[in-house]
């Protein structure tokens, strides 16, 4: 018997796997309980009848005929409803489940935190997009947004820093929301100065609970550390202890000397502390990049995609929706209806009058018969 059950279960499972969506039962063997009420009825003895009349009355069966037909009909209806309830209960016990289409997701990749400088200096319009000058922050938003969108399978977080460092988005698989929060960031929102050390410290705090192999910070700035409570190199030492790899990006066009009616003047340029950014990258086994324009910024993010590649391994699963509560609820509802039907039958049907008539006949017979 057990072998037959296992064979049936294997066939059922195979049939389910060959379909995109299917209905499966976790405990298929529960359906073997369906004939249990019939077995009980056949194997157990029938309860003996009681209250039989002592004397036979020729026309007594004729008196009962009208009531017996209605009683048999009601009994049959209750029996059918009870059988339906039993089938529903067994179905619920078998735990039906709806198995959806197969969904594939990449195995969890990097825990990648991005720290973006939004200090006052990021408003310098020395970047060119589509032939027109834009601010450094606008260029970063455009390039970083595309980078985030491609990091499928990675958990992305966002830190914005100026005078203070703030966690704008915790590590999440929701790349769309991170992109929205990045695009909504505004210049000077975190202050006009630059706290590089605080930004690194906050990133380390958020990454220390992640897998050591996947802790990555991309820090983008156009200046030097001018604020904050933590020195950048001390923060880098802490990051190295926590196995956080830091990739630093210095952004901003080089200074140019142009001839004006007032003489030669220096235009553009950045107050970028490149030695510190290089040291931060070296301490944490990362790399330092210099972005002079949008093209070089695109190239840097392309390099980061190669250095920290997206995981190509995929995890497949099929979503499962439990359905057992539907037959269970319907069984409870029908049970309540059967109970109400029985109460209503006993209270409002004329069968009570028939019982009274039967008792009256029996009393007359005991007192001396019919006159």
What does this structure look like?
By secondary structure, the chain is α/β, with parallel strands linked by helices. It has 11 helices and 15 strands. It has helices at residues 2-17, 36-43, 60-93, 136-150, 175-183, 196-207, 232-241, 274-283, 294-307, 325-348, 351-367, and strands spanning 22-25, 96-99, 103-106, 111-117, 127-129, 132-134, 155-161, 165-172, 215-221, 245-251, 256-260, 263-267, 288-291, 314-317, 320-322. The longest helix is centred in the N-terminal third of the chain and has 34 residues, at 60-93.
What's the quick description here?
46% of the residues lie in helices and 20% in strands.
- The number of helical runs is 11
Q: Percent helix among the residues?
A: 40-55%
| Quaternary organization | single chain
Number of self-contained structural domains: 2
Strand elements, count: 15
The CATH class of the largest domain is identified as: Alpha Beta
Determine the CATH superfamily of the largest domain.
von Willebrand factor, type A domain
Broad structural category:
alpha/beta
CATH topology of the largest domain: Rossmann fold
Tell me the β content. 15-25%
* pLDDT averaged residue by residue: 78
| CATH architecture name of the largest domain | 3-Layer(aba) Sandwich
Shape: rod-shaped
User: What's the arrangement of strands in the largest beta sheet?
Assistant: 8-7-4-9-10-13
Stretches with pLDDT under 50, minimum 5 residues: 1-19
Distance between the termini: 67 Å
| Main beta-sheet annotation | 6 strands, mixed
């Amino acid at each position: 018997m057990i072998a037959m059950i296992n064979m049936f279960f294997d066939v059922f499972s195979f049939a389910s796997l060959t379909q995109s969506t299917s209905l499966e039962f976790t405990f298929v063997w529960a359906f073997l309980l369906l004939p249990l009420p019939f077995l009980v009825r056949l194997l157990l003895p029938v309860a003996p009848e009681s209250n039989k009349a002592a004397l036979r009355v020729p026309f007594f069966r004729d008196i009962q005929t009208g009531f017996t037909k209605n009683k048999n009909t009601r009994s049959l209806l209750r029996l059918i409803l009870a059988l339906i309830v039993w089938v529903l209960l067994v179905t619920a016990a078998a735990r039906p489940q709806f198995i959806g289409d197969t969904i594939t997701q990449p195995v969890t990749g990097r825990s990648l935190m991005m720290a973006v400088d939004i200090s006052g200096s990021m408003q310098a319009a020395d970047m060119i997009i589509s032939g027109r000058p834009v601010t450094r922050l606008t260029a970063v938003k455009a390039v970083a947004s595309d980078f985030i969108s491609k990091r499928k399978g990675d958990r992305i977080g966002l830190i914005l820093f100026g005078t203070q460092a703030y966690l704008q988005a915790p590590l999440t698989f929701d790349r769309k929301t991170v992109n929205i929060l990045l695009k909504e960031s505004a210049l000077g929102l975190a202050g006009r100065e630059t706290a590089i050390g605080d930004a690194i410290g906050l990133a380390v705090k958020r990454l220390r609970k992640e897998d050591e192999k996947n802790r990555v910070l991309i820090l983008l700035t156009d200046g030097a550390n001018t604020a904050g409570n933590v020195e950048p190199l001390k923060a880098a030492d802490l990051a190295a202890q926590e196995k956080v790899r830091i990739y630093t990006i210095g952004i901003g066009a080089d200074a140019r000397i142009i001839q004006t009616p007032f003489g030669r003047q220096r235009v553009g340029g950045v107050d970028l502390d490149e030695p510190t950014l290089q040291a931060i990258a070296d301490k944490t086994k990362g790399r330092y990049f210099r972005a002079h324009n949008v093209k070089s910024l695109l190239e840097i993010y392309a390099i980061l995609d190669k250095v920290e590649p997206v995981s190509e391994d995929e995890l497949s699963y099929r979503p499962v929706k439990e359905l057992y509560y539907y037959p269970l609820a319907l069984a409870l509802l029908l049970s309540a209806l059967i109970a109400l039907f029985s109460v209503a039958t006993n209270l409002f049907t004329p069968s009570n009058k028939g019982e009274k008539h039967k008792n009256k006949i029996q009393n007359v017979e005991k007192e001396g018969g019919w006159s």
